[in-house]
C-alpha cells in the first residue's frame, strides 16, 4: 500500500539538533524526551527508509513565526530537499501573517521559483485566530495558485504565551465558509476539540484532517469512528517525523481499528486527491 506522509521533516543532523535546542519548542521536546529517542541520518538513508516503507511522498511543512516568537522562516531550509529529491518531497511554505504583503511575495517565490505545493500557518504562534483578516490575503493567494494551506493546531505544550483558543474549530469553519475553494488541512487533529473538528470536516467539502501526535490521546476513538464512517474521504496520514518516528506511526495506524478501506484512504487516496496526484 502506497503512503503519503503529510507531516515529515527529514531527520538530518541539523534538524534533530535544532529541535533539541529550539528556543520555543525545546522545553516541550524535553518534556516528551525527544532527546533520548532522537536519531539523525544522512538524507540518502532517510530516503531509503521511506522507500522500504512505501512512503512515496513526504510533505515538509515549514514555519515562520518571526514577528511574535523570533522564529525566522524555515522555507530556505526546505529547498535543498525539493531540489535533490523532487519526486519524493513536497514543500509547504511557512508564512507569518503579520508580514503582510511580504508573506504573499514569499509564497509566490516559493511556489513559482522553488516548486512548493502549499502554504502553512500556525495560529497559536501568530497569536491570532485562523479567521483573522491578516490571513485572508494568504488564503486568497492559495486559491489563486490552487494549493492547500496547512493550519497547525494542538496545545502548544509549554510554549509561553501561546493561546490554544486561537486554534478552535469555529475559526477554521469560518475560513472554510469564506473561502469555499480553499483546500484546508487541519494539522494535529485540532485536539482536544475532537467532536467539533469532526463536524467542521464533515460539513465543509474543502476541509481535511490529520491526527499527528493525538491518535492515542483521550477521546481519540472519535477520530477513528469518524474516519470509518462520516469523514472517511477527508482524513490523511501524518507522522510528525522525527518528533515521532514515521515507521512507528505507520505500524500504529495498521494496529488501530480503522476499516481496510479507511486505512487505504488515510494512507494514500485522500492526500493524493488533495494534492492532485
From TrEMBL:
GO terms for molecular function: carboxy-lyase activity; hydrolase activity. Residues 83-277 form the Amidohydrolase-related domain. Keywords: Lyase. Gene3D superfamilies: Metal-dependent hydrolases. Signal peptide: none annotated. Pfam families: Amidohydro_2. This is Amidohydrolase-related domain-containing protein.
Amino acid at each position: 500500500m502506497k503512503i503519503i506522509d503529510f507531516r515529515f521533516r527529514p531527520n538530518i543532523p541539523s534538524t534533530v539538533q535544532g529541535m533539541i535546542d529550539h528556543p520555543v519548542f525545546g522545553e516541550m521536546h524535553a518534556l516528551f524526551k525527544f532527546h533520548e529517542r532522537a536519531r539523525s541520518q544522512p538524507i540518502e538513508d532517510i530516503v531509503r527508509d521511506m522507500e522500504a516503507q512505501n512512503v512515496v511522498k513526504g510533505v515538509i511543512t515549514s514555519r515562520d513565526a518571526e514577528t511574535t516568537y523570533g522564529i525566522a522562516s524555515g522555507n530556505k531550509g526546505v529547498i535543498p530537499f525539493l531540489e535533490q529529491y523532487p519526486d519524493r518531497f513536497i514543500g509547504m511554505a511557512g508564512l507569518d501573517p503579520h508580514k503582510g504583503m511580504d508573506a504573499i511575495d514569499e509564497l509566490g517565490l516559493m511556489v513559482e521559483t522553488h516548486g512548493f505545493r502549499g502554504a502553512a500557518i500556525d495560529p497559536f504562534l501568530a497569536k491570532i485566530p485562523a479567521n483573522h483578516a491578516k490571513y485572508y490575503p494568504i488564503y486568497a493567494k492559495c486559491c489563486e495558485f490552487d494549493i492547500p494551506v496547512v493550519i497547525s493546531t494542538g496545545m502548544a505544550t509549554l510554549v509561553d504565551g501561546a493561546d490554544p483558543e486561537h486554534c478552535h474549530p469555529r475559526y477554521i469553519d469560518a475560513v472554510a465558509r469564506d473561502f469555499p475553494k480553499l483546500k484546508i488541512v487541519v494539522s494535529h487533529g485540532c485536539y482536544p476539540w475532537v467532536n467539533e473538528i469532526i463536524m467542521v470536516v464533515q460539513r465543509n467539502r474543502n476541509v481535511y484532517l490529520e491526527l499527528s501526535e493525538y491518535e492515542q490521546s483521550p477521546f481519540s476513538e472519535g477520530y477513528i469512528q469518524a474516519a470509518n464512517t462520516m469523514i472517511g474521504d477527508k482524513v490523511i496520514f501524518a507522522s510528525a517525523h522525527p518528533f515521532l518516528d514515521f515507521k512507528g506511526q505507520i505500524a500504529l495506524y495498521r494496529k488501530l481499528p480503522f476499516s481496510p478501506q479507511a486505512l487505504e484512504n488515510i494512507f494514500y487516496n485522500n492526500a493524493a486527491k488533495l494534492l492532485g496526484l
